[in-house]
Sequence to fold (510 residues):
Amino acid sequence: MSDNTPAAPAATDENQLIAERREKLKALREVQKQGGPVAFPNDFKPADQAAGLVAAHGDKDVAALEAQAIGASIAGRMMLKRVMGKASFATLQDASGRLQVYVARDQVGEESYAAFKHWDLGDIVACEGTLFKTRTGELTVQATRIRLLTKSLRPMPDKFHGISDQELKYRQRYIDLMTDEDARKRFIARSRAVTSLREFMVAHGFLEVETPMLHPIPGGANARPFVTHHNALDQEMFLRIAPELYLKRLLVGGFDRVFEINRNFRNEGISVRHNPEFTMMEFYAAYWNYRDLMDFTEALVRDAAQKATGSLQLSYAGKPVDLSRPFERLTIREAIARHTDAGDGAGDRAWLVAALRALGFSEEKDRLASRSLASLQVMYFEETVEDKLWQPTFIMEHPTEISPLARANDQRPEVTERFELYITGREFGNGFSELNDAEDQAARFAAQVDAKDAGDHEAMYFDHDFVRALEYGMPPAGGCGIGIDRLVMLLTDSPSIRDVILFPALRREG
Fold:
């Protein structure tokens, strides 16, 4: 049985394309040796950007452009190229966007035009000329001078499809950015969000500070640290898991309001919500409590959304998120009652233990019988309620036993004056009235050490210097941490944390 279907043309081998480009570069180097132009010049300074030219002149008609003879000087990566005998079109992309270029042999000269025809997509090109509009109304630069600035040795992905391999997008972010306009917009939005956070903090009297990234004792969160060794000091050091204990030392020192936009490192799992290296903003204010923090955090998130997206009505994963309404505030028990059919069982130890066992928890692993009512409630909440908190919601009153740095509630010491902010079913922030009782803090650290000795790798160490700082007296205060990466995921409708981190953690190639 024969098959008369014509065979598809063989795809051009990428190695062959790279070899051809290297030969072109070799020819450029030979020209340079003979006194010609350098292969990688660094003497061109573009006077314009593509988006700026379009904004300023895109609505002008053909006659107006011809009458004004507006000059243009741009540089960018050649993304499209169409050669047509004595004249050709190309599209250059700079940091702001794209602009078409018209290259005619009679305008740029025989030698430059011949060279242009051999340039490849991905090459970085400089162009000077005047603006005009084509018959289709597209603003274009008619080149009077065009130069090759950087020879690209690797072919770009298919111009219509870009990178289809998601991991390749993360691993080779530079290609993702050059081929995907949405990716560029996403990281521009991230930059605007971070800038707005910083401006908001400064406008409200907070002082931006910097604290160490290498810690002799990891602290400020229940997390597993990365361990390294400092050769000059000949001692074990830990990458920062949180800046909290250093920022509170500054409250002791007399700064009433401080914040830090910081990189943290936690040697834990990787998922669509977790990256071992991530960005947070933590801030602390003397004479604030957790209710002040909730008011401020709500305003802060709203301001960042408005400045980054221009709206408080967002969409995430196809569902609306409304940041314009007051954020709901519920205790853990209230949230269980609101979002499950637990009823009075939410306040009954025996019911909660049975419910958790039904969910797969075991006595051997999870020690259900030894846990407090508050601890059982938070476990049940995490399993049954968390992912239902789509609209912004503050969840309050976390157990004291799992909140070693938070102030206990005066009326109910088994819970703390603590909240977590949930949006789209995930945690975005964590804040609390700070514990400033040095003796209580020492006792909490001691309990953490016991938990670590019992096998809890995320339990805290005993930080003697921090206790000493508290013994000098820290004013009553509130502090909060907000996950920048998760906030940007919300603002850009990104399904994975890797989409909003320029260079996420990946397994090494090979």
The mean pLDDT is 92. Residues 318 and 408 are 39 Å apart (CA to CA). The radius of gyration is 30 Å. The first strand starts at residue 71 and ends at 84.
